[in-house]
Amino acid sequence: MLLSACAASGSVAQDAPRPDWSTSDMPSQVGRVFLVTGGTSGIGYESAKALAAAGAQVIIVARHPERGEAAIAGIRRETPSASIRFESLDLADLASVHALATRLNATLPRLDGLINNAGIMEPPQRDTSADGYEMQFAVNYLGHFALTAELLPLLRKSDAPRVVTLSSIAARRGALHFDDLQFEQDYDPASAYQQSKLACLMFARELQRRSDAQGWGLRSIASHPGVARTNLQVNNGFVRRSVMRLVLQPAARGALPTLYAATAPDARGGGYYGPTGMMELRGPLGFARVPETATDAQAASRLWTLSEALSATRFPSGSDRMSASLPVVDRPSR
């Protein structure tokens, strides 16, 4: 409860990461199993590469198998002994999320870390997912919400499970548009992206609160990369046209907050990590500023309830760890 209270304050004065923390400070991950969404490029690729180099078994999930094969080949060039494989997942299709979770629940002994990284940014025209939801909300947030729910049995079989969910500095300008969550009335690419990343941050914090209350044993942590040279940024029209391209940091640097959250013994459940330089665009690792909108517990609870309904997934209740072996997904017929 203390950790949750500290995180809710928006800043934590103690146990801050060393500003010069790097992948060389990562403890061995031998024997641990991680899943990284969007692990074929950018922050996800750098995270998967570092985890594999530290000895973890890594599962990269993304939409395109050919990109998965290329990512695995690139990682094995640097770490020939890497234990890494690809699984297909389309976060914009909840049936695909369910299919992946079914495969993994049947084949993995446990899952030690889930990194909810994949995302899309500001498509100029409104598009919808296979389930009819605004695409950024579906991919960045709702698909990860459902994936976490469906993989919770595997996570609870770990002795120290972690869920790391990527947010963004854009979350500071975000709002939850409960009156038009899918931007059907007035689509604005930036506002929809900001909402999705605020939802990710609120989800990470609410997941920690519920884990504490229900005894799930999770450490749920949020991170953001600042402004890094990834496909999201370099393909963004505003960045291409502005001086923002001059402050882009390498993707490997942008991955450090995620890797700290996923592996550091001192990483706090309910915490939020990112760069601490000017406007948190780049710079040394530290605690990221939690926007006031992300501390609204009532809104977070409302979003959680809506997300269970929209995704047809349900997190369990009760603190009996033996229930980790029981299914937690309730998928009513549509």
Could you describe the 3D structure shown?
The chain is globular. Helix 4 (94-107) runs parallel beside helix 5 (135-155) and helix 5 runs parallel beside helix 6 (189-214). The protein is an alpha/beta fold. It is built from 11 helices and 8 strands. The protein has helices at 2-8, 42-53, 65-78, 94-107, 135-155, 189-214, 231-234, 237-241, 251-254, 256-263, 297-311, and strands at 33-37, 57-62, 83-88, 113-116, 162-166, 219-223, 272-275, 285-287. The chain starts with a helix and ends in a 23-residue tail after the last helix. Strands 3-2-1-4-5-6-7-8 form an 8-stranded mixed sheet, sandwiched between helices.
Key structural traits:
eight-stranded mixed β-sheet; 334 residues; 11% strand; alpha/beta; disordered N terminus
Low-confidence stretches: 1-13, 237-243, 319-334
Please state roughly what percent of the residues sit in beta strands, choosing from under 5%, 5-15%, 15-25%, 25-35%, 35-45% or over 45%: 5-15%
- Total DSSP helices: 11
Distance between the termini: 38 Å
Provide the residue-averaged pLDDT.
Answer: 89
Question: Would you count the extended β strands for me?
Answer: 8
Order of helices and strands: HEHEHEHEHEHEHHHHEEH
Which oligomeric state applies?
Answer: single chain
Structural class: alpha/beta
Radius of gyration: 18 Å
Sheet with the most strands, sense and barrel status: 8 strands, mixed
Shape: globular
User: What fraction, in percent, of the residue positions are helical?
Assistant: 25-40%
Give me the side-by-side strand order of the main sheet: 3-2-1-4-5-6-7-8
